[in-house]
Structure to design on (874 residues):
């Protein structure tokens, strides 16, 4: 863990090192992924089944690629009523928030008589990748699938690997609750290839979303352009801005909730109170002795953790903007007064009783958020990822007479004669038919 | 040019070939681009100047990288008043349309007492790549720069190569009109590297937009993640749906306005009227004899042009949806009746007096549009490319009591103990302080 104070000489260079030291070291998977994608594209189900047998040790045929409705119902029946209720609380709140994102179409007629605007239209089909094994998070199924359903995507296919045939029943229950229409027991680059190019069994989709390992991320990169993808997720991070009004143990747990994800995760405390920082650091050390995922959390905190001491809370927000965190907690008495100064953060959690972990599950806003400082230019997953806009332009003879000549002038200036003639031929025809024009 | 009729046997397979035959054959520039980016990242201005001298035969120093205000004013003075007026008509209409795209922030408090929503925030800095030489289109400068300014981006840097020192004055005039704050005479992958990583002279930006050659496209691909990029543009295309109510020559010019861009461009006519199709084809052949860019347009029409004869206009729209064109013209009496059935198109042009060429310059909607059938999932450039969203969640003790337990249950189910404790520690503290809770 790095402890820095903005009053110290050398703060700037140490802070800049924090900004860059986690840039991803890409694993060299380009060629194997390209080979897998090519074979799925060429051989379809045959390749998909062979690769699944090879990587997941699961014999599978085109007929057993999809989970049946009965399998999904049986999995759901294994989940406790308490958990199903929690899943439902989460799903309802996520649905409600994303419904409020739904945009309106735009249409207006201007002074020149042109009618113009844009229509929002959902994608036809989306594909959702869900990692298998320990990283199979039912909450992520909800967060990826529900925005697609709310956007109006009619077909929502999901791929989840089942190594040795093992599947987390809560993942299937979450998929059913979220409205996923097809679930396939395939994973890795081969699943991405199947959703991008289609096979005899799996029809292609228009956009693929969801987290995955290095192979999945590289496969998404390679199919990008043929289909849409969401952002390539890097390791998760949180910045907690706190003062001494919070319990140090609670703040320590907020930091560790990030650190327990992944050794590359980054948890940063920013506080103007150096004594409070000491107490939080001590609480982190104490909690690390008892937490179940202590190995991961300890490594993350040791390598990537940071505690920054600032002159005041406003300087804390300035540093947070430079870090452009995925998650930003404002654990202070008046979080709104700080939040107005926030320019770069994926999601903000305001107030002492609103930790990120609430938002990870049941808050409503999406938990798929821009990592690796990309909150400078990127946003969390939303219904906009599952819709696109068609702009339109409409105008009659009068409007063309008013604005057409400017188009003709610019087209000639750019040396695009057919562009110019496409407009001027219409203007000529109008002139012929209206002698007084 | 391929002529197909939906009534013919074999239509489906011939049509499917149309859908796939233009998939990009990537030029092998990965390694040279990676080398250029690495040297700009490491050596900054030194590499940038050396590469500019090498590729553009232009001796340049850090002090002369940027165009001066005087150079820009002198260039603008070279442009005719008529053209400056046309540029201004275009700029005003583009500004007006993109202002109407500006979204509203969202904020609400729900039944559980949580306050949540999202704020739209502009990027700090955007970079605009503009190709040099013949492909230097002032209209594209307006279309890329104005949405950034309207979105509220305060810093807008532009890079344009000036091979042998040559610059199109209209490009500089357009940049000045659009509010570009810095213009650099650099191009290629080195310009993308400079904007992504920064040099001593060029500060880094958050997102890079604008068209370019294979090197520029590959450079954008490689810096993606470190900064945002717009989509990688493929060859341009149009689908014109027309009936015999239009002049065949006018429709031919609309097709050729697409074909004259690039030999890879694709122009497609879809009509239910076979005799009208014959007349359009004859008019295309006649115009190709006289147009200035006949070599390019002829090659495009011969290789990629298509004429599809359908049973009726509704079937024409169905085929257009499958083609998911960048541009869609509806040259019929009642275009709105067809437009409601359009699901996949970057931009639509409605009615006989509203050709694409009007929209390319002065319509108002953006002319940077999804190519290569990506209108299935992608949209044209917009102010959304220059803004991002921060979601927020806020709640007090009562709200946490209501929804917190569901978060705890799901966190434990996912094996994320610190997530659970981050919430349950707060719930425990509340229970201690409110004995009746």
């Amino acid at each position: 863990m790095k402890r820095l104070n903005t009053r110290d000489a050398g703060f700037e260079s140490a802070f800049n090192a924090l900004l860059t030291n986690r840039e991803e070291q890409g694993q060299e998977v380009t060629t194997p992924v390209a080979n897998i994608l090519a074979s799925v594209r060429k051989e379809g189900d045959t390749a998909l089944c062979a690769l699944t047998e090879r990587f997941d040790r699961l014999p599978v045929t085109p007929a057993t690629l999809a989970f049946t409705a009965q399998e999904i119902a049986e999995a759901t029946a294994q989940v406790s009523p308490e958990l199903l209720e929690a899943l439902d609380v989460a799903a309802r709140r996520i649905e409600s928030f994303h419904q409020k994102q739904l945009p309106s179409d735009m249409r207006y007629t201007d002074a020149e008589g042109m009618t113009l605007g844009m229509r929002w239209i959902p994608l036809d089909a989306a594909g959702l990748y869900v990692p298998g094994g320990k990283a199979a998070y039912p909450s992520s199924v909800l967060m990826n699938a529900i925005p697609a359903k709310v956007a109006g995507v009619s077909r929502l296919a999901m791929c989840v690997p089942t190594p040795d045939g093992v599947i987390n029943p809560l993942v299937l229950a979450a998929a059913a609750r979220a409205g996923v229409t097809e679930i396939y027991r395939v994973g890795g680059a081969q699943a991405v290839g199947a959703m991008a190019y289609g096979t005899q069994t799996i029809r292609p989709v228009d956009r693929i979303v969801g987290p995955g390992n290095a192979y999945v991320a590289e496969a998404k990169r390679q199919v990008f352009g043929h289909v849409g993808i969401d952002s390539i997720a890097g390791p998760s991070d949180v910045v907690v801005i706190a003062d001494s009004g919070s319990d140090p143990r609670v703040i320590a747990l907020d930091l560790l909730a990030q650190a327990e994800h992944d050794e590359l995760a980054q948890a940063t405390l920013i506080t103007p109170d150096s004594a409070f920082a000491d107490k939080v650091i001590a609480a982190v050390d104490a909690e690390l002795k008892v937490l179940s995922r202590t190995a991961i959390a300890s490594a993350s905190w040791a390598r990537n953790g940071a505690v920054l001491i600032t002159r005041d809370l406003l300087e804390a927000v300035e540093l947070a903007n430079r870090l452009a965190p995925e998650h930003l907690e404002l654990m202070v008495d008046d979080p709104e007064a700080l939040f107005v100064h926030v320019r770069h953060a994926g999601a903000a959690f305001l107030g002492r009783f609103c930790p990120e972990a609430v938002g990870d599950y049941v808050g409503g806003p999406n938990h798929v958020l821009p990592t690796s400082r990309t909150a400078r230019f990127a946003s969390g997953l939303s219904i906009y990822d599952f819709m696109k806009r068609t702009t339109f332009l409409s105008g009659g003879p009068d409007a063309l007479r008013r604005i057409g000549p400017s188009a003709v002038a610019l087209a000639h200036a750019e040396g695009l004669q057919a562009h110019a003639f496409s407009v001027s031929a219409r203007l000529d025809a109008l002139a012929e038919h209206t002698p007084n024009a």
In short: Chain B touches chain A through 129 residues (CB under 8 Å). Residues 234-377 of chain B form a domain with the Rossmann fold fold (CATH 3.40.50.1980). The CA atoms of residues 25 and 234 of chain B lie 11 Å apart.
